[in-house]
Write a structure and sequence with these properties.
Layout: H1 2-14, H2 40-49, H3 52-56, H4 75-92, H5 97-106, H6 115-125, H7 134-145, H8 159-169, H9 171-174, H10 182-206, H11 211-214, H12 218-231, H13 236-263, H14 271-277, H15 285-303, H16 309-328, H17 335-340, H18 346-355, H19 359-371
Helix pairs in contact: 2-5, 4-5, 4-10, 5-8, 5-10, 6-16, 7-8, 10-13, 10-15, 12-13, 16-18, 16-19
InterPro entries: dGTPase, dGTPase-like, dNTPase_2, HD/PDEase_dom, HD_domain, HDIG_dom, PHydrolase_assoc_dom
Domain HD: 75-196
GO biological process, one term: dGTP catabolic process
Length: 380
């Protein structure tokens, strides 16, 4: 217990008053004794990091699927990049880094195979049972499907970590009224910043975009001006890497600048005070407009690129066929999911099984299911 007191004292000295302090946690669904040298959110982070679902993110492509995605970002690398950006911002603002990192590592854990096209397929196929949301499925994974402990199902994460993921699952409701924890907001901002910058990187590397095309965007022009002022003219490979770095740094720097000024008069208040006041981090008006322009451009120029559409369509077809096959013959589900069917609609169970798959595992099970007329598919 002495170690726990030292942990709390350390947070009291290092964290802002409005950070989420470990001593203020509302605990877990299943009560556990305090750890001798780790706080509750550090334990959450480690449980997520060591979970099977987190490891499977290495086989789930971020945007580019199939052969297009071999050398590009996966959900796992993206999660680490988001954690790095979010943790850096949390340190500057004196927020809880352990909670921030736990939330960042968890944020994409519910993504299905084949990127956004996989989610589109499951959303359509599961429409009669409430649709599919990867943010909501993340909560199903950590509360029900992960089996790491004998005393309870799931990971038994702290209520604050679960609540942070629930905010992601209900963003529209969280955007008004009582604000989410500041650590939750940082992860959401870091996700968006990292996602856009790294999709630019991957698209440039694949030749889907050129620097000239990107330079039509105001935020890219700003980044390019900063690069040239600092380094002059660079070879294309170095320019691409510098551009990604500058896009992230530009957005993080402004968010922190705005946040520091916003927090200055609030020092001394606690996290609940700021939530009740509806305090929310944001970029300035100019950068918000520039970010919208970048995201609109990426949606049309990259996510709908002619080279990407056939690959996505093929992946969507395989996932859809596998969904139909399992709904028609639920005995082909693994035992664990046949048991879940006792309390859940069949379409929901099939969707859960498919959503937990990696890209390659889904393709393998599709081949097995369509070439072998009987027998359950493999569990993940």
């Amino acid at each position: 217990m002495n170690s726990i007191r030292l942990y709390d004292q350390r947070e009291h000295l290092l964290l802002a008053s409005y950070a989420m302090h470990s001593c203020d946690t509302e605990g877990r669904v299943h009560a556990e004794s305090p750890h001798p040298y780790r706080g509750p959110f550090a334990r959450d982070r480690d449980r997520i990091l060591h979970s099977s679902a987190f490891r499977r993110l290495s086989g789930k492509m971020q945007v580019f699927t199939g052969e297009m995605g071999i050398y590009h970002r996966t959900r796992l690398t993206h999660s680490f990049e988001v954690a790095s950006v979010a943790r850096t911002m949390a340190r500057v603002l004196r927020l809880n880094e352990d909670l921030t990192e736990a939330l960042a590592l968890m944020h994409d854990i519910g993504h299905p195979p084949f990127g956004h096209c996989g989610e589109d397929v499951l959303s359509e196929r599961m429409e009669d049972v409430g649709g599919f949301s990867h943010n909501e499925f993340a909560l199903v994974i950590v509360n029900e499907l992960e089996q790491r402990y004998s005393a309870f199902t799931g990971l038994n994460l702290s209520r604050e970590t679960l609540a942070g993921q629930d905010v992601r699952a209900h963003k529209a409701e969280a955007a008004v009224g009582r604000a989410p924890l500041l650590e939750v907001q940082l992860v959401d901002a870091a996700d968006s910043i990292a996602y856009d910058a790294h999709d630019v990187d991957d698209a440039l590397q694949m030749g889907l975009l050129t620097v000239d095309e990107l330079s039509e965007l105001a935020i890219v022009r700003r980044a390019m001006e900063a690069i040239r002022a600092r380094h002059g003219m660079l070879p294309i490979r170095e320019l691409r890497q510098s551009l990604v770095h500058e896009l992230i740094d530009l957005q993080v720097s402004e968010l922190l600048s705005v946040a520091v000024e916003m927090m200055r008069p609030l020092d001394g208040r606690n996290h609940e005070d700021l939530q009740n006041l509806g305090v929310r981090f944001h970029h300035g008006d100019v950068l918000r407009k520039e970010r919208r322009e970048l995201e609109s451009f990426l949606f049309n120029a990259v996510y709908r690129h002619p080279r990407l559409i056939p690959v996505r369509d093929s992946a969507a077809r395989r996932l859809s066929e596998l969904f139909e096959l399992l709904v028609a013959d639920p005995n082909r589900l693994p035992l664990r999911f046949r048991q879940r069917q006792r309390t859940l609609p069949l379409e929901k169970v099939v969707g859960e099984y498919l959503a937990g798959m990696t890209d390659a595992f889904c393709d393998h099970q599709h081949r097995y299911a369509t070439t072998t007329p009987r027998g359950p598919l493999a569990d993940w």
